[in-house]
Amino acid sequence: MKTLSELHLDALTEVFNIGAGRAASSLSEIVGEEVKLSVPRLQLVQPADINMQTLALNSPRLGAVKQQFSGPFDADAMLLFTEERALEIVRDMMGSHISIEELAEYEQDAMCELGNIILNACLSAMADILKISFQSSLPRYVVDSSDVILRQIIKDTNLSIMLALHIDLTIEKHHTQGNLVFLLNSTSLQELIAHIDHFISGI
Amino acid sequence: MPPSIKTLLIVDDSRVSRMLIRAFVLASRPQWIIIEAASGAEALEVVGENRVDFCTMDINMPGMLGTDAAEQMISRHPKIRIAIFSGNIQDCQQSRAAALGAVFVAKPVTAKSVAQALEHFESIE
Amino acid sequence: MPPLIIKPDKQALPNDTIWQAIWDNVNLGLILVDQTGRVRQWNDWVAKRSGIPAKSAEGHTLESLFQDELNPPFKSALKNSLTHRLPVVLSNALHRSPLPLFPWPVTERQQTRIQQSIAITPLTGGADEHFCLIQITDTSISIKRERVLKLHSEQLSIDANTDALTGAHNRRYFDERYKIEFNRAQRQGTPLSLLMLDIDFFKDYNDNYGHPAGDKVLIAVVAAIKSQLNRATDVVTRYGGEEFAVILPDCEAPENHAMAEKLRRAVSNLNIPHCKSKITGTVTLSIGITTLECDAKCSADRLLETADTALYEAKHAGRNRVNYLGAAE
Lengths: 203, 125, 329
Hints:
The complex is a heterotrimer of chains A (203), B (125) and C (329).
Chain A: H1 6-31, E1 35-45, H2 52-55, E2 61-70, E3 75-82, H3 83-94, H4 100-130, E4 135-136, E5 140-145, H5 146-154, E6 159-171, E7 174-185, H6 186-201
Antiparallel strand pairs in A: 1-6, 2-3, 2-4, 2-5, 3-7, 6-7
Chain B: E1 7-11, H1 15-28, E2 33-37, H2 40-49, E3 54-58, H3 66-76, E4 81-86, H4 91-99, E5 103-106, H5 111-121
Parallel strand pairs in B: 1-2, 1-3, 3-4, 4-5
Helix pairs in contact in B: 2-3
Chain C: H1 16-25, E1 29-34, E2 39-42, H2 44-50, H3 54-57, H4 62-66, H5 72-84, E3 88-90, H6 92-95, E4 116-124, E5 130-138, H7 140-160, H8 171-188, E6 192-199, H9 202-209, H10 211-228, E7 235-240, E8 243-249, H11 253-268, E9 285-292, H12 300-316, E10 322-324
Parallel strand pairs in C: 9-10
Antiparallel strand pairs in C: 1-2, 1-5, 3-4, 4-5, 6-8, 6-9, 7-8
């Protein structure tokens, strides 16, 4: 079974950085000022090693935006933030005049949209570069204890690998970190590798 | 050296991006000499030691930002023509490129985006 | 005999007329655009709220139909969904009202746009035909509902912390608030004064004038106390029957003395006749005070006991007076 090489990872990192650039541009259109979004690190995590440390998220509660996508290969994509960070992001995006109580009401809605923008931007960058296309479900946002969210990630017994992208997001001078994870089963991983190989060999 | 032989410096931390730019450029300008650098600092070293005509510059790289490297490059070698390649397509990045006299090209690297850069390189001459 | 099995006839699928009726009857805005961004169809819901009949909209782009009224993020979202064929959501939280849609039926009042929540999903119509379905939910109602619920819960929390008769805070509120103020004072090293107040010979008043009259005295006393307190941080609570507690954060011994004296005088100035009072002919207060000094190492319970003891001493010393007792370590 093939696994991702350095060159594959380099190609994927570039794909996600282009996705991050597109997402930042959409977000800045909404908040009306510059938004910085970068994906400095891409990490491959084996199912046995998936825990809070590998995700670099230390909080009892997490917020997760999920989309399932399918196409030449299928994957579950999830954007993860600690709950406090998620609220801060929503406040930055909505403007500071909003009260904390109101924020909680809007969190669900606003986080779905934020996750949708980032996940779609990354998927569409991948689709453009690898010349493939995906279908996707609508985003869903869940807030739960970190254990529950982690269990949902690893419950799929076919899970072969997790691609974890550490995200740096800056809105209105506030710096936030989160994680974008793609969960792939072994068939999907092989398909992904084949598509990147095809792309690289075409250069 | 015949005038049609030009030297292009490709600055990008992604090896795949460098490969792509090189491939698209050589497809239409097979005689060009191509040098690669993986960071802003490396790029400045290269232009100190080699005659470089054109440069494609990524923005987000570890260490120095591409736009900062481009600024230093232009102040030392005003004749180099630069194309800023970036996935970050917000207005402020585009206006920064314009202020440097460079052209802004949106990633991904494609035949079309590389053609945009080439057009800028060869425009006034 | 074999069991009797009744098989229903296979139900026919709804025909086009039924689908059209469903399309026009859902309580949701539906717009179908093709891959060039032109409206193929929109339902009655959208026609009524935009004022543009479906027939007039067909074949036109949303930009040409609504012109500058569309917000830019909506345009980008639709473009992205058409180009990348991925579903997009626009939250009410971040966009409020992306489309110029107005409440229906139309009223005389000035019209403001409906609050909207939008989902755009790509559809494939067989062959090479692609569409996007735009679903618009009116969130004005749920926003209103949330606001009402919030008001309700605020009211409930006020009710849970208020003494229904006098409008002062209740004992439960005191217990919580006292803990908070005490901890704050200790953390920040600021003084905290505590006053315990008791109406003199109140049992005799009730016995003589009746409970309804007694209730009126309680109300008048609370009003008199409140009228003397001028900082938002000062807290008056009905501690028990005719006993009240006042928390004065950031208040040192000389000040609290003056404050207690003001409270005593305010009640005595009410001049409420009390013929069973053994000291004056009117309703009066006894007050015990203590202060948590900046550097004192005293527990919250100890401070409360001290204030109680101070009150007890004031009663013993003849009532209608203020008695101070320092908080013991």
